[in-house]
């Protein structure tokens, strides 16, 4: 370990692994360490199932859940938007070669105590009881405009200036409160209603991402990797290794060594590796982070699919905050043996939301009620941490904790922002073309 | 982007069925894992082969009667050095070559550990071959042929001593693996591709069906 590196990355969560890969590809000499003996940190998929029980300090039931190795249990639930930034990163770095994905069967939205399928095509849109006939027509006009909208071309504005707030746009199309809820939360995937008072470009961009993602694989805009989300950090770690990155798991970190206000190395087990830049998750530099909130998550093992989802093998349900008198949405993500994450006959659902009260678990109730009988439930409340500075002075670049969103867009925003702070340049998606499948030399 | 695998070698595409298998290399650093692959895939040998950089995986085909066996060969990318190989590496592997250096008994001990690891982590019907590499350095031999062969028999492994430098037994060991792999229409892969592979095309759904098409 007594060597000099350009960058030392600490923690093998998804963000750190993507950055490690991007930095190795761009020619930096990278050392990547993790205190755990496995890849993934918070974004690992735990396996075998005993590890899940141990993680939550519960005793392991005997012979109940089939072969333990068939389980790969995510700690943080997320899906990939088929046309989102993570998919672009996977394709442009070639990491997609190591992975296989499945399209998520269906996306549902909660309204008035019931769940409704978010229409995936015109036929479903015509048939849905989510909104009345006239509302459907108004909504269709809105979607059409979103599809044609181009920020760079004022001719497409048709009275909707980019700085007009989202609420005004809804009003312009006379969309009712339910449709607004549906659009903002189930399509644009906003976590709360703060967007209503903000410029509408973001709303339009997000609706576009949803429909473009839907157009790619049909059933829903979401993808999920076989064997669990923990495959993603492993894939990017391999990319980094292929480009010369050095990997050390099970490596405790004692200290970030500073000199004149900036980082000069990392000390571990009596040795110091020198470096000019450190990239890490908040748990490696807790004194340089602040708490900005909390997320509560309940990982539930079911022995049946979620009721009223046509026995979907993978499902997302969004409970918009207004529907249950909250400020933040509640999300349900469910995957199953079809994704090689659990034994046959079982289903893994995670219910999550941003904490608003002193009884976080109770806040999940509307989501838990949708699941039917629950075999096993593991609840965690985790702090959301954020770095206190942007790292450009001390050269310690710290990622943010994974938030409650059900997809990877904010994850990628953070990664791209970190990349820019680290290198001074925007990450150019078009520039990174792995040359060929066979060999990259 | 291109999907997995690259252009077919001319000798492979003509007739019969094509089976594709994932093969992983394991073994201590510097036993010659990459050299074996380079010899097999490109017919090259470099005395001072650098530690593995840049090769995601290489492909090479072997012809057996009416069947073309296409190996997708995964190198460790150096992640074995500090015992940091990811589970993804073994995932879905149908064959493995565990390599040791006949001049270094420690690497033989380590090879046994890898075999155990494969028996624990990899799919149960994986075909494992043990390769005693650097056979050209027989004057410095520290691991006896008989000892390794006995160990291989006990554990139902294919076994050969190889030399990436002289090419001795390099093609042969891959060929032996190819012969041992199941090649029927259904058993080509333990788990036929079940998911979608991402690519750049709009609406580019691409699901490959199994191995033998």
UniProtKB/TrEMBL annotation, chain A:
One of its GO terms (molecular function) is Rab GDP-dissociation inhibitor activity. It is found in: Cytoplasm. Its main location: cytoplasm. The keyword Cytoplasm applies. Signal peptide: none annotated. One of its GO terms (biological process) is small GTPase-mediated signal transduction. GO terms for cellular component: cytoplasm. InterPro entries: FAD/NAD-bd_sf, GDP_dissociation_inhibitor, RabGDI. It holds the Pfam family GDI. The keyword Membrane does not apply. Keywords: Cytoplasm, GTPase activation. Regulates the GDP/GTP exchange reaction of most RAB proteins by inhibiting the dissociation of GDP from them, and the subsequent binding of GTP. Belongs to the Rab GDI family. This is Rab GDP dissociation inhibitor. It comes from Elysia crispata.
UniProtKB/TrEMBL annotation, chain B:
Residues 201-213 have a biased composition (Low complexity). This is small monomeric GTPase. The keyword Hydrolase applies. The keyword Protein biosynthesis does not apply. Keywords: Endosome, GTP-binding, Hydrolase, Lipoprotein, Nucleotide-binding, Prenylation, Protein transport, Transport. CDD domains: Rab5_related. Pfam families: Ras (PF00071). One of its GO terms (cellular component) is early endosome. One of its GO terms (biological process) is protein transport. SUPFAM superfamilies: P-loop containing nucleoside triphosphate hydrolases. It comes from Elysia crispata (lettuce slug). It is found in: Early endosome. Belongs to the small GTPase superfamily. Rab family. Its EC number is 3.6.5.2. One of its GO terms (molecular function) is G protein activity. It catalyses: GTP + H2O = GDP + phosphate + H(+). PROSITE patterns: RAB, RAS, RHO. Residues 184-200 have a biased composition (Polar residues). PANTHER family: PTHR47978. InterPro entries: P-loop_NTPase, Small_GTP-bd, Small_GTPase. It is an enzyme of class 3 (hydrolase). Residues 183-213 are annotated as: Disordered.
